[in-house]
Design goal:
- The chain has helices at 18-45, 67-72, 152-164, 169-178, 185-193, 197-213, 252-259, 271-279, 284-291, 305-309, 315-332; strands at 128-130, 136-138, 218-226, 229-237, 242-247, 267-268, 296-297.
- It has 343 residues and is α+β, with helices and mostly antiparallel strands.
- Among the domains are: 149-193; 267-339, no CATH class.
- The strands form three sheets. Strands 3-4-5 form a three-stranded antiparallel beta sheet.
- Helix 7 (252-259) runs parallel beside helix 11 (315-332) and helix 8 (271-279) packs antiparallel against helix 9.
- The longest helix is centred in the first third of the chain and has 28 residues, at 18-45.
- The model has no long low-confidence stretch (mean pLDDT 81).
- Residues 45-87 are annotated as: Disordered.
- This is Transposase.
- Residues 72-84 have a biased composition (Basic residues).
Length: 343
């Protein structure tokens, strides 16, 4: 059964009689029947059958990608490629020789797109005065460059190249130095990693605004290792906004802490907190104790003396109380209860 299939020798043209041609056709037909029966046997045995691969259509006329197919494709309306371009410079070019008596007819415009990279250094001369009382007053730098030596456009370019274009820090340092910027590797590292308070504030404002205009949100966590430690990236958003944060845990407590970004984290026992604890089957005895307590603290109950004072020692009970108190604090800060899934 495993013997190799014999190969027919090539038949010379003078030896191919009508009878030989008929026999060759019969052999081809028999081989096709044998292959089909072999596939059927494999199928009945539950074994893998030979896949059916469609023949290539690349060499056929009218195949996708051929000249005939592309020529028949319906063309859409042509758009003006340069109609809305901002023109920075206009140059008038006269013919080399203008015969006498020629009449000026107008211009034929040719728009050439180009780009320039060059430094734009500004010297701010801060005027200094002494008042009659002997006090010194001094002009102030624009708000966007307070305390720095680099303008906002250069900083934006650095951040764009590093985060969006994935240019490594050594290559980025070489690039901006080639453009004529006097900057040290330490200052570049500071711009990329430390001097980001405005961006963090904008990110927190994004979450706050997104929550205020949304009726629902999605959340997800993905794990990764950084410097030998496990970490997580938490996403909160919907069709209208997306917010991300790097955290050290993946839990409901982490999600609730993320919702309070930009605000003081409060742990509050109120109706919403008690309702959450009850729905998560907190001990009836503990619930009865907490219902008579009104507390608002800015320290996590989990692991603090407050839970010990209430006799809450089991890890599951401490977790539920912490989650409920966090939720109560968020409700007091105006976060919609629609964002909390009690189940």
């Amino acid at each position: 059964m495993n013997s190799p299939k014999p190969e027919l020798p090539e038949i010379n043209k003078e030896d191919r009689t009508p009878l030989v041609d008929v026999l060759l056709e019969m052999l081809a037909w028999q081989q096709k029947q044998i292959d089909e029966l072999a596939q059927e046997i494999l199928k009945l045995k539950g074994e893998t059958t030979k896949p059916k691969i469609k023949p290539s259509t690349m060499d056929k006329e009218g195949a996708p990608g051929s000249d005939d197919s592309s020529s028949k494709r319906k063309k859409g309306p042509r758009r003006s490629k340069k109609g809305n371009l901002k023109i920075d410079e206009t140059q008038i070019i006269q013919p080399d020789e203008i015969p006498e008596g020629s009449r000026f007819k107008g211009y034929q415009d040719r728009v050439i797109q180009d780009i320039t990279f060059q430094t734009h250094n500004i010297r701010y001369r801060l005027a200094e005065y002494i008042t009659p009382e002997g006090l010194t007053i001094l002009g102030q730098l624009p708000e966007d460059i307070q305390g720095g030596s680099f303008g906002k456009s250069l900083i934006a370019f650095i951040l764009y190249q590093y985060h969006h274009q994935h240019v490594t820090q050594p290559l980025l340092l070489e690039q901006i130095r080639d453009l004529g910027v006097d900057i040290s590797s330490g200052k570049l590292s500071y711009i990329l990693t430390e001097d980001l308070d405005d961006f963090h504030a904008e990110k927190d404002e994004l979450l706050k605004t997104g929550l205020s205009v949304s009726k629902y949100i999605h959340t997800d966590d993905t794990g990764a290792r950084h410097k030998g430690q496990n970490g997580y990236c938490t996403h909160i958003g919907n069709d209208f906004f997306a917010w991300f944060s790097s955290t050290e845990s993946k839990s409901r407590i982490n999600f609730l802490n993320c919702l309070s970004q930009g605000k003081t984290t409060l742990y509050t026992l109120n109706t919403g907190a008690i309702e959450y604890m009850a729905q998560n089957k907190l001990s009836v005895v503990i619930l009865a104790t907490l219902e008579n307590i009104s507390v608002c603290i800015n320290t996590a109950p989990d692991g603090c003396e407050w839970l010990d004072q209430q006799g809450i020692v089991k890890p599951r009970h401490r977790k539920i109380v912490t989650e409920g108190a966090l939720m109560g604090g968020l409700l007091d800060q105006g976060i919609s209860s629609d964002f909390f899934n009690y189940q």
